[in-house]
Amino acid sequence: MANTNSKGKWNRIVLKVGSALIAPNKKGCSSRYLLGIADFIVKCRMHGTQVVLVSSGSVAAGSSSFDTSKKRSIAVKKAMAAKGQMEMMASWDRLFDFEVAQLLLTQGDLQIHERYESIRETAFELLNNDILPIVNENDAVTSDEQKVGDNDNLSAMIAAAVDAECLIICSDVEGLYTDNPNTNKDAVLLKEVEVIDDRILAMASGPDSAVGTGGMRTKLEAAEKATSNGILTYIVNGLTTVSFNQLFAGNNPGTKFLPFKQPLDDRIHWMTHTSKAQGEVIVSNEIGEQVEDDALSFDHSDIVNVVGDFSSGETILVRTEKGKKLAKATSQHSSCVLNLMLNEDVDESAIEWQEDNPIISENTLAILEEK
Ligand SMILES: Nc1ncnc2c1ncn2[C@@H]1O[C@H](COP(=O)(O)OP(=O)(O)O)[C@@H](O)[C@H]1O
Ligand SMILES: N[C@@H](CCC(=O)OP(=O)(O)O)C(=O)O
């Protein structure tokens, strides 16, 4: 059967298309490579596979309206994205005889679990009405600090949010090579990756095209995010329809990243891979020795320092004085309150109150494995 994994036909996939495919001439929008990708999407849908498209290209598409001889400031890139997003959406829209919808997201939208759930709800409603969701980062409204920053990571977050079985990242290379194939002619393509360890990470570097954002590094981050959620991931060459014919026939045209056999629980996955820490709580090194697979407990007397400004309910990183990252979790206290607790002559009633309200919530605790 076409489009299969070991269990049968995929129910839902996320397809990520990089800027190099939208704007092969480095600016504007071209349908040269989009035709083959659109054909694959149509075939998938005809065979009952729901598709979510994550499309880059708004900055490249919008750049033709701006003076590109000068260095691009963040404000200019945001303006390019605002202009180019419409052109990019129109290009996709022209290629389909079904409806498409635009979902523009930022890290801030994915950061709060209720908003994340709301995005899920919208995506499912679109899919159930046979509308193709086309996702991009809302570059026009975000500062660099508030961004996911690249669509590879965004596509993995979306794949987790919509319970996709497969993430396909289409780029301008066949897949992951032992080194950047554009600078090292001896680099060899890896067909299958079981574990994304330091050896694999060391193979990837940034982009060398004028329009790409994260290069192979962010694709590996995305593959790690997706596979740890049980999502099979491919990096394929979107410049050729051969890749899509192969995928459709159930073959591997690029690099295949195997999903974890025991995926993380959804909420822990969201905490680990989607939610960004807004600050840090530094605890004594002894606490680092007591971490268990799914438990970490400490109280105010174990806190050595509080870094950054965060409110109660926001995500924090817990690490030791030596710098070992222990966990990400929801803080039940603001940085302001925790700083008060550090004060030697803190009020006794404040300590009692804190004892009744643990510093981190056990429900969202994600223990981090040190790399
Ligand atoms: N080990 C590697 N294997 C393959 N490509 C690599 C590797 N390291 C760096 N790259 C670079 O990553 C690029 C793809 O990333 P990028 O330009 O960001 O594409 P996209 O716009 O599709 O996201 C390749 O064209 C290549 O230059
Ligand atoms: N949001 C940006 C794309 C950022 C990005 O990750 O680009 P790419 O590396 O080409 O996938 C845009 O639409 O131009």
TrEMBL record:
This protein's name: Glutamate 5-kinase
Pathway(s) where this gene product acts: Amino-acid biosynthesis; L-proline biosynthesis; L-glutamate 5-semialdehyde from L-glutamate: step 1/2
Enzyme class: transferase
Nucleotide-binding as UniProt keyword: yes
Catalytic reaction(s) noted: L-glutamate + ATP = L-glutamyl 5-phosphate + ADP
Function: Catalyzes the transfer of a phosphate group to glutamate to form L-glutamate 5-phosphate.
Keyword annotations from UniProtKB, A to Z: Amino-acid biosynthesis, ATP-binding, Cytoplasm, Kinase, Nucleotide-binding, Proline biosynthesis, Transferase
NCBIfam families attached to this UniProt entry: proB
Primary site of residence: cytoplasm
ATP-binding is among the record's keywords: yes
